[in-house]
Amino acid sequence: MTASAEVLDAWDEKIIHLYGGYDRSPVAATAVQIRREMPLTQSLMRQGGFSPATTTRLHRVNGRLGALMAACQHDLDDRPGAVAAFSEAFYHASEARDRPLQGWIRCWQSSLARKNGDSTRAAVLARDAVRWSGSASPVAARAAVIEARAMAALGRKWQVHERVGLAWRILGGLSDEQHGDPGFAVETMHSATLAEMSAAAYIDVGHPDMAGVYADAALMDLDLSGATGRRSLIRVSAGTAALWRGDVDQAVSLVNEALDISMHRPTAPITARTAQFVRDARASVGQTAVIEDLEDRLRTWALPPV
Fold first, then answer.
1. How many CB atoms lie within 10 A of CB 39?
2. I need a surface site. Which of 136, 144, 177, 257 has the fewest CB within 10 A?
3. Can you tell me the distance from the alpha carbon of 40 to that of 50, in angstroms, rounded to the nearest whole number?
4. Could you count the other beta carbons within 10 Å of the beta carbon of residue 148?
5. Residue range 172-195: average pLDDT?
6. Where are the alpha helices (DSSP H) in 76-136?
7. Which contacts of 170-177 are long-range, i.e. CB under 8 A and separated by 24 or more positions?
8. Contact status, residue 284 vs residue 243, Cβ threshold 8 Å
């Protein structure tokens, strides 16, 4: 295979398709498709001898595919693999001068740092995302709400409000094209996606009323979009908010809906958030029958191999 313009154009089209379908397709299936493509793109990169423009495009392809593979590894609970893959993808994005991807990867690296217990580093990485993407970009909105989750983990409640507010101000300045569709994207940020992420930040900081407001705002748009992962995550947030309001039956119903929606697309974030919901419910109302049923269901919620 040669790195002709036609071949590179075809890879660009595949990448658009893979990113656009990621939130609706089984994660392991997406990983298989990426593993089919990456040996070819990496082989061409090792071959070398191309013009600077072609080399830049090859780096961009490798960066975009590598970042998506890292997202798959994250969602299938391979955090060490995701950390390494995002680092490699950032190198390719840097060589390609793919600044939106550089910022987007920093956002993922921030989330991974927070989940690995280093929320101070998570905040630094989220702020660094803006250095690459610019302060008035979709990535900047994503970075602000991701930093809000780091602030929540650090117990800085006021800064959670401030960073979520900043994310929405940035969103308000984006063009229609930059809003895009709900779900998984590098160059766009939809209000429903931001609302889901905002709800998660307010769950983290223990503010159920605000979490419920954002969850209610996002549910319909996410359902209409068919974005499976976000549809499930927003229901877990809404369920947690309902639990803290004392509506246990509604809360459990919403979390069961989340698992129903993602039955054919299980991910580590859904597993982790549902497990946290079960712990919160036990602490709040004890070991009731509905909580036991949900816990039993979660035990069989197996992720496919990475």
1. 9
2. 177
3. 15
4. 29
5. 94
6. 79-96, 99-115, 119-133
7. 170/135, 170/136, 170/137, 170/140, 170/141, 170/144, 171/141, 173/136, 174/136, 174/137, 174/138, 174/141
8. yes
Specify whether the CB–CB gap between 111 and 73 falls below 8 A.
Answer: no
Q: Which two tokens stand for residue 15?
A: 């990448």
Q: At 76, list the tokens.
A: 């299938």
Residue owning tokens 């909580």: 291
Q: Encoding tokens for residue 273?
A: 């958030």
The tokens 């994660």 sit on which residue?
A: 27
Per-residue model confidence as pLDDT tens digits over 116-148: 999 999 999 999 999 999 999 999 999 999 999
For the chain, the average pLDDT equals 94
Domain boundaries, the chain: 1-97, 113-222, 227-306
Give, in degrees to the nearest 5, the angle at Cα 274 between 185 and 262: 50
